Amino acid sequence: MTVQVKQYPKPSRDQRERSFPNNPSRTDFLVAAVRTQLLTHTVTMQELFARQSSLVGAAIYGRKTLEQLVAKGMQLDINVVGLCMFSKDVTAQLAQAAVRSLKVRGTLRASPEVKAALRERMQ
User: Fold this and answer.
1) Taking phi first (over 0 means left), then psi (-120 to 50 degrees means alpha), and beta for anything else, what does residue 42 get?
2) What is the pLDDT of residues 58-90, one digit of tens each?
3) b/e per residue, 25-47, with b = 16+ CB within 10 A?
4) Domain segments of the chain as ranges
5) Is the predicted pLDDT of residue 22 greater than 70, yes or no?
6) Using CA atoms, how far apart are residues 98 and 20, in angstroms rounded to an integer?
């Protein structure tokens, strides 16, 4: 007993796009939903990522960025796997005011004064 399976040719991409122009896929629906939620909560997400960022790679913090955070009354919880660097113009007082906690699994590059100021906040 043999079973015959009828083979249909695959539709071309152009044919697929023309056949369902107003019928988005499930993926399109989910992407649109996530995008809408992110746009709705943009400020909250930015504040969250600014305060509690985990990073694999290199994080470089400059004076201007830290001063803006301090002006807003915010502090950073820094968690870096790789390189964490504070630029040369960052003072020890600014680093203490801007950084709540610091966890570096890798290399910390900063002036000796900044390292000393953040030593008690390192985990």
Assistant:
1) alpha
2) 889 999 999 999 999 999 989 888 999 999 999
3) eeeeeeeeeeeeeeeeeeeeeee
4) 13-121
5) no
6) 53
